[in-house]
Amino acid sequence: MYPLEDKREGSCYLITAFFAFLIIILVEWIWPDVIPFTLFEYWKLNGSISQILKALLPLLVFGIILNVIMLVRTRNDPLINQNAEVVFGIGCGLSTFAGIFEEISFRWILFYDQIIVYKILNWLFFGFAGWGFFEWFFNHISGPIANFLTLGYLEPYLFNGLGWFIGAAIISSNAKFRNGHLYQGWFGWINAWFGGMYFFYLMFNYGLIASILAHFLYDLFCFGLLYIDAAIERKLGWV
């Protein structure tokens, strides 16, 4: 679990996202059609709250199962057990922060940024000659693998009529999101990749506000499970 882990990664991604946003504004001014979406295209809420919560259910079930397995297999730091209520309170704040700023950074700004990056890199790596390395790599390797691992749910967005670079940007920005959770160990690394892809699914279907809400609730559930586990261990005298 990750409640009180080192959060220095957070400030790093916010700084990266800030400069990426400036680059997006500049490049779109020079190259208006570089991104096939308007700047605030996904800043909306499609569907009702009940529909969004229903769509979130598979992710919550997935997270509950994985977190329960990890919590059962390990013991908490005694300080967490002694201060379970304080930890949960901090967790509420961290859940709010992550839900808002990680989604804005990775699902919006860095996603848009990676579209620009891939278009430029692909042109430099033989795209100017009619065969781009990054386009080939996505269409034949990374794209099919990501589509398989996500059970085809993201296929309409990974492989769409707008261009291969959309799918490549999804995978790349989500990899950055995943790598930002390396401090959580292999469990957090894997969990973040699948969770991030699911947040993309929610954003494309219900809007960025929905993915922000989903991220907040998912993290809050994780902290809630930790609180229950810490309270049980404290009751058993494991402090």
Automatic annotation (TrEMBL):
<dbReference type="Pfam" id="PF02517">
    <property type="entry name" value="Rce1-like"/>
</dbReference>
<feature type="domain" description="CAAX prenyl protease 2/Lysostaphin resistance protein A-like">
    <location>
        <begin position="94"/>
        <end position="221"/>
    </location>
</feature>
<keyword id="KW-0472">Membrane</keyword>
<dbReference type="InterPro" id="IPR003675">
    <property type="entry name" value="Rce1/LyrA-like_dom"/>
</dbReference>
<keyword id="KW-1133">Transmembrane helix</keyword>
<protein>
    <recommendedName>
        <fullName>CAAX prenyl protease 2/Lysostaphin resistance protein A-like domain-containing protein</fullName>
    </recommendedName>
</protein>
<feature type="transmembrane region" description="Helical">
    <location>
        <begin position="51"/>
        <end position="72"/>
    </location>
</feature>
<feature type="transmembrane region" description="Helical">
    <location>
        <begin position="207"/>
        <end position="228"/>
    </location>
</feature>
<feature type="transmembrane region" description="Helical">
    <location>
        <begin position="182"/>
        <end position="201"/>
    </location>
</feature>
<feature type="transmembrane region" description="Helical">
    <location>
        <begin position="116"/>
        <end position="137"/>
    </location>
</feature>
<feature type="transmembrane region" description="Helical">
    <location>
        <begin position="12"/>
        <end position="31"/>
    </location>
</feature>
<dbReference type="GO" id="GO:0004175">
    <property type="term" value="F:endopeptidase activity"/>
</dbReference>
<keyword id="KW-0812">Transmembrane</keyword>
<dbReference type="GO" id="GO:0080120">
    <property type="term" value="P:CAAX-box protein maturation"/>
</dbReference>
